[in-house]
Write a structure and sequence with these properties.
Layout: H1 2-8, H2 35-50, H3 82-114, H4 121-219, H5 223-226
Length: 227
């Protein structure tokens, strides 16, 4: 029973304890412009990997008042192949996970640069809020660029897939037409052969009948001569 529960847990969840790397930020020797970006980027990579919605949250559609009365399931969508959809969703997700992780490391370095230990808590909160806003803006911009590029590739691959399907459909129809013509020609040839066989049998019967009549006339005795 417990083994089944463990098998249902995603493997990436076992990497969550590695977020304890943030403990090194409390070590004074690690508070440098080299180690802080590495530690922060690695720790947030584990977090974004396990909870990817945190990375692409800025690129999701917000909820408006009018959306309360709209059934989103009935809205028209592109007829995208599920394989293509899964492929590009994975590309988008991993692109934002990696970019967001690197961005957090860079912003942590910038936070260290702006705080030299003489600031009050209000100033630190202000600097932190400004850095978070920068993260939101940059992450949203990166996501928008990635979405724009991926949208073009999705349209391109969907169009090519439709062309291939249409080409395969035309090929199948043409094969069926050729098969129908071939079957019809075989049927005509078979009927012709049957007709020729029937005519040959009839001619043979007629010849046999004629031969029997000739033989009968030849064998019949001359009655006057015998008398």
């Amino acid at each position: 029973m417990y083994r089944k529960k463990w098998t249902k847990v995603q493997k990436k969840r076992f990497f969550l304890p590695l977020t304890g790397v943030f403990v090194f930020l409390g070590i004074e020797e690690a508070q440098t412009f080299i180690y802080i970006p590495m530690v922060v980027s690695f720790g947030f990579f584990i977090i974004f990997w396990n909870f990817p919605f945190l990375a692409y949250y800025n690129n999701t559609k917000p909820l408006y008042v009018k959306d309360l009365f709209i059934d989103s399931d009935k809205l028209p969508n592109y007829n995208v192949n599920p394989k293509i959809k899964t492929k590009f969703l994975n590309i988008f997700e991993w692109s934002l996970i990696i970019s967001a992780s690197l961005l957090t490391g860079a912003l942590a370095d910038f936070w260290l640069y702006k705080t030299n230990g003489d600031e009050s808590w209000i100033e630190i909160i202000g600097i932190t809020g400004g850095i978070l806003k920068i993260f939101q803006m940059v992450d949203g911009t990166i996501g928008y660029i990635i979405l724009t590029i991926l949208r073009k590739y999705i349209i391109k691959e969907t169009t090519e897939l439709k062309k291939r399907r249409w080409s395969n459909l035309k090929r199948i129809v043409q094969l069926k037409i050729n098969q129908s013509r071939l079957n019809k020609s075989h049927l005509i040839a078979s009927n012709s052969a049957n007709n020729l066989t029937a005519l040959s049998d009839q001619d043979a019967n007629n010849m046999c009948a004629g031969t029997n009549i000739i033989i009968a006339k030849t064998v019949q005795p001359d009655v006057g001569h015998v008398i």
